[in-house]
Amino acid sequence: MDENTIPALVEKLCRSFSNGKSSETSKEYEAKYKLALQLLSSQQLSLHNHETEFSIVQNIKKLLGSKERYQDARKFDELYTRLTSSSILKNRKAVLELMYYLAQTPASAATEPVIRHSFTLPSLVTFTSDTTTIVKTPKNTEVPYCPLASATSQKKTAAQSTLYGHSDVSNHILLREILYAFQGIQGQVFQWDATHENLQLKSTVKLPKALRQMVLSLVELGWLFHKVQKYCESPKTESTCGLAARAFGAALQEELSEYYRLLAVLQSQMEVHTIRSGDTVGVETQGLTFQRLLVWTKEPKARMKLLAALVEACHGQRGGALASVIHSFVLQGNATLKTVVLKILVQVCRPLYEMLMLWTFEGELRDPYGEFFIGVNLAVDPGSLWNDKYYERSAMVPNFFTQEQGHQVATTGKSICFLREICLDKSPIPGMNQIRRTAEERSESLLSLDWESIEEAYSTASQYLLQVLLDRYHIKLHLCALRQYLLLGQGDFVNHLMKLVEPELDKPATTRMSRLLASILDKCIRCTNSQYDDADVLKRLDVRISEPSQGDSGWDVFSLDYKVDGPLGTILTPEVKTRYETLFYALWRSKRMEWIMSKLRHQQLTEGRQLRGLLEVQGVLHQAQLLLSEMIHFAQEMSHYLSFEVVACAWEQLSIALRSSKTMDQLLTAHEHFLQTVTSRALLDEESKDIRDHLRGIHEAMLQFSQIQERLFSSAILEVEKRQGKSKSTIETFLPSIKAKLCAISASYQNFVQTFLFMLSSHSDPNLQGLGVRLDFNECYQRKDSRLSMSLTYFHRRMTTLSVPSLLH
């Protein structure tokens, strides 16, 4: 036996107290040795760990006072005072607990069972001086010799008669073999079954049925042990299983160490002398028996079943998923087993706890084996840090975390990373260090995490990040610039830009015009109130020319661009900028229609005076004026709707949301809601695709009417000049074709408008329904189309009735 093991040291200590060779001295040694092992295997002292040193001292004084040992109480008080002033003894509380326990223990308690340890240790009745050390051998190795069996029992190979009937194996040998089976070792009685991976009785061994059932029930503990030991001894590297799985293996190994202590005590019981009557019949009255072994291993067997179930359930799991599986075993009624699971879970969660604290308070993700519920994508662009670089892995979120708690942890660390990497703010967040100290004081593991401190850290980091974005990087100023320029909210700038770029945008899109348009933009800024805007805003404003398609003009490829970098790039991602570009095209086209209609009205008022004497064209001019009035009304109402009811109202909601935002996610959500609202109300979503196509048809009709009026006035003015010069009249060559085209455009336009109004009236958005009412304010189109005279309430009820059967089919 190793001289440094606990049993060897205890034996040496007990022998030093019992010098001599007499039988009385040997009995005294055995009693002391037994009592020492009882104390070492007891949990009695741990039942009052919550008591303080002061309360233990007071209890000792009360105990001495209750026995009227007042002089001993005063002496104890003096000795304790001297002990507190000395620095030799480090663990005073444990020593006082032991003294108090020994003082309360009666003298007869030496032969009584003690409080069990984690794997229950049996009551030790009699001990010898030699304690057998557990020696683990491979499961396929025969064990021909056992030092625990006496020489007499080893020589007896004849049939034995037991309390259970006739047996081929003596009870002593069978008990010895069972203890080996508890360690997964085969021997004279049991053999290893590789198919089922368990120990079975050899076919040559004959046992009574009752004894056989009891033995097989006992040997099941060895099968469970082998299952757990196999998992512990399987190769585990951090790269393949992770830190949490290695911690799980270490926790299981600690449980097996307690199991080995149980086996050591059981083997020591094999040395107990038995009272025999005759050479063949052995009736055990003391020491280890089948009944006692069955009782003593009941609780360890239940514990080993739990460990085996954990091993089976946790196979292949790692990180947070492993913690979730183990935590599911906490929900059970057995308090002892629940304590075992919690102890293992605390050890498994230790690496995850350190990862969480490091991520939450320093923004550092130290997870080399992918076990944490926060993942990182190193291949993304730095500008997409907030949206794409860090993400939550739902499979790794422990099931004792709520979804909101996991989101708070993820957002807190992401906010710190954003400050460090994007905002280049490496200064400590005010108050974060104090929150971290509080969290570490209140929580020791992932199970006892102080969520109040985590929520406070989440709030502090989020508000500090938002403050930096608003004050240092002026996020609201740039969002306002987007509204003013990309969403055409700056009226004087838009009108002047439309006037300056018109000659260039009328050209084909294949013409190189980027530099010229950039200079026009710069001139437009200097000539309008835009010159007073922030210099950083004007520096970011630029012209963008899209890739042209066949037949496109400059109007189809021109748009304004807003350059972004740093934190602004997190809000204006490439996808968001594409959506702004789409909105710009829709608003720019609407503004262009309004601009063209205004020019045509100006042409009718100025050049029409020259045609008063040309009576042949008066009817056509009157028809053109009526159609132009309809188009002007439509263009102005659409432009007013998009500018004020869509963009302005949505911007007001965004402004309110920005003022109430407390986190980066809330800011991004408010901006996303702003874009979705503008997109849907501007007829740019999927639901409005058909309406958008009809609106484009209306715009095409306006452009065609513009060309017809230009030809009409140019031809009519030329005819007036010819008549003034007494030249031959050519009015019959152009007037009929223009009149026919004008009638066709008028019919096509009104048809598009009527269908457009009908679609607006059936749209789910009440704002678009109101737009339809304003476009037909005098019910002009309603008189021409009976569908528009239908009540909206009746229409929606009818549409709902018709849509339900179609959905069912």
Task: Report on the architecture of this protein.
It contains 31 helices and eight strands. With 809 residues, it is mainly α. Helix 8 runs antiparallel to helix 9, helix 19 packs antiparallel against helix 20 and helix 25 runs parallel beside helix 28.
Main sheet makeup: 2 strands, antiparallel
Distance between the termini: 84 Å
Gyration radius, in Å: 46 Å
Helix/strand structural class: mainly alpha
Strand line-up across the major sheet: 1-2
Shape: elongated
Helix content: 55-70%
Number of helices in the DSSP assignment:
31
Strand content: under 5%
Give the low-pLDDT segments.
109-118, 123-164, 273-285, 792-798, 800-809
Quote the average pLDDT.
81
Report the strand count: 8
Main location: cytoplasm
Protein name: Gamma-tubulin complex component
Domain Gamma tubulin complex component C-terminal: 478-781
Domain Gamma tubulin complex component protein N-terminal: 175-471
